[in-house]
DNA sequence: TCTGGGGTCCTAGGACCC
DNA sequence: TCTGGGGTCCTAGGACCC
């Protein structure tokens, strides 16, 4: 396909920006957002980056620095970020006939046929609209392929003087930028490929674009070959309009405090199975078997290590929470060993089947109608009053193992009780 | 004391079949 | 004496993404 124009727009330090929207006092302060269990820094504003806080840095190592430097620290608030993301995508759909939501904070927009000279102004208008309507600052990268649009977005982010927009659709201006970008910054080139490429003298995105595609394939499979073509402006990756049917589904969590009793473990896997059931039903899928795993800390050398997993077959394919809980607990009992401090457990389901497509046993032991009615009722109540309003008793009340979110901001946009208050005086 | 949670795609190699 | 080859399916592991 030639003559295509794509834009990649994404939120700057997206999670941090969401927090800033609802607390203007954070506007000039460094802000970071932590991963699940308050484990690592996964989003940092430029001020936080300037303090030397790295992506993925464990929080306990930077706790003192954050206190001394006045860094605002937040647990992840996925409810809030997901809602802000939906608002941004609603705007994008007004601005392009063809939008691919690529991740929670990134979307590709098809701008083919918009007129090359007007693109820059169009992108700047879009940015300021998103900023005004949602409060989120963004950057826009423009190019003839997804890989080049991503790279243009990277350039826009790193070069403040561009004002948040970079257009690499013109071949002549493009090559100058490509020669200035390290090869590891290219979408699809991770640490392993970067090391191999640098070893043969391919150091920049420009070098990679000039690499023989056959050699790229030999070194990095067909994925690497595609990347070379995309860097040359030949599109190999179409926009995905409808998300493809998902192939697997997992619910895994680190524990807030280590689990040392079987009762605690059974509670935790029941809670994870409950969540798994919600995900399956939302996607119209079911499963005939699930894997359960548990392990001790990978990091604490004083903990005796233990890691185990097993696959449990359900009597028949199902997405009923109670079936999944039973199966998950059976698996957990089978691999449980006393005397360890468990740090994490989870359940993993592959081979998902669209609901109703699985073979039925000749004599169906389940009352399918009753099961569906109960699950639907649970999902409706939980959607209305918040996840976890109704859970199976097996998922526990005390939940000492529960993942930590000790610094989570209010769910400003999705819970009436947590809506921001404004007082005029 | 404290280190995330999801996903996808690709390839090689073995088992099995005719 | 001569001892195939091509196809499919599955799994594990690597690499990458956000």
TrEMBL record:
GO biological process: DNA repair; error-prone translesion synthesis; SOS response
Key word Repeat present: no
Extent of the signal sequence: none
Entry GO terms, CC: cytosol
Superkingdom of source: Bacteria
KW DNA damage (keyword) present: yes
Keywords attached to this entry: DNA damage, DNA repair, SOS mutagenesis, SOS response
Group of enzyme by EC: transferase
Annotated EC: 2.7.7.7
Required cofactor names: Mg(2+)
UmuC domain residues: 6-190
PANTHER family cross-referenced by the UniProt entry: DNA REPAIR POLYMERASE UMUC / TRANSFERASE FAMILY MEMBER, PROTEIN UMUC
Family: Belongs to the DNA polymerase type-Y family.
Protein task: Poorly processive, error-prone DNA polymerase involved in untargeted mutagenesis. Copies undamaged DNA at stalled replication forks, which arise in vivo from mismatched or misaligned primer ends. These misaligned primers can be extended by PolIV. Exhibits no 3'-5' exonuclease (proofreading) activity. May be involved in translesional synthesis, in conjunction with the beta clamp from PolIII.
Record protein name field: DNA-directed DNA polymerase
């Amino acid at each position: 396909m030639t003559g295509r124009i794509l834009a990649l727009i994404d939120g700057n330090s997206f999670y941090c920006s969401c927090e800033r929207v609802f607390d203007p006092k954070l506007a000039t302060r460094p802000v970071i957002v932590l991963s699940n269990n308050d484990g690592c820094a996964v989003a940092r504003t430029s001020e936080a980056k300037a303090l030397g806080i790295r992506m993925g840095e464990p929080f306990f190592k930077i706790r003192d620095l954050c206190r001394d430097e006045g860094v605002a620290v937040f647990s992840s608030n996925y409810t809030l970020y997901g809602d802000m993301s939906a608002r941004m995508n609603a705007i994008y759909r007004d601005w392009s006939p063809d939008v691919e939501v690529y991740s929670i904070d990134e979307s590709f927009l098809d701008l083919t046929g918009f007129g090359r000279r007007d693109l820059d102004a169009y992108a700047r208008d879009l940015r300021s609209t998103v900023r005004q309507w949602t409060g989120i600052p963004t950057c826009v990268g423009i190019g003839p392929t997804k890989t080049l649009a991503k790279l243009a977005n990277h350039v826009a982010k790193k070069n403040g003087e561009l004002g948040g927009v970079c257009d690499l659709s013109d071949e002549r201006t493009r090559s100058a930028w490509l020669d200035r970008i390290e090869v590891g910054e290219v979408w699809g080139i991770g640490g392993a490929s970067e090391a191999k490429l640098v070893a043969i003298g391919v150091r920049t995105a420009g070098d990679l674009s000039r690499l023989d595609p056959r050699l790229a394939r030999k070194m990095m499979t067909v994925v690497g070959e595609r990347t070379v073509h995309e860097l040359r402006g030949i599109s190999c990756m179409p926009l995905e309009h409808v998300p493809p049917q998902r192939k697997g589904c997992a619910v895994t969590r680190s524990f807030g405090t280590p689990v040392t009793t079987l009762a605690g473990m059974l509670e935790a896997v029941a809670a994870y199975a409950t969540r798994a059931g919600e995900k399956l039903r939302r996607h119209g899928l079911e499963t005939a078997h699930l894997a359960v795993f548990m392990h001790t800390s990978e990091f604490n050398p004083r903990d005796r290590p233990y890691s185990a997993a097993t696959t449990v077959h359900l009597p028949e394919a199902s997405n009923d929470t109670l079936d999944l809980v039973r199966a998950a607990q059976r698996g957990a009992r089978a691999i449980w060993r006393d005397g360890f401090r468990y740090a994490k457990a989870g359940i993993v389901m592959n081979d998902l089947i669209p609901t109703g497509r699985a073979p039925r046993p000749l004599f169906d032991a389940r009352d399918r109608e009753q099961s569906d009615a109960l699950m639907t009722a649970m999902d409706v109540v939980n959607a209305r009053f918040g996840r976890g309003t109704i859970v199976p008793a097996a998922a526990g009340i005390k939940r000492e193992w529960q993942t930590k979110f000790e610094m989570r901001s209010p769910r400003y946009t999705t819970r009436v009780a947590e809506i921001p208050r404004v007082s005029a005086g």
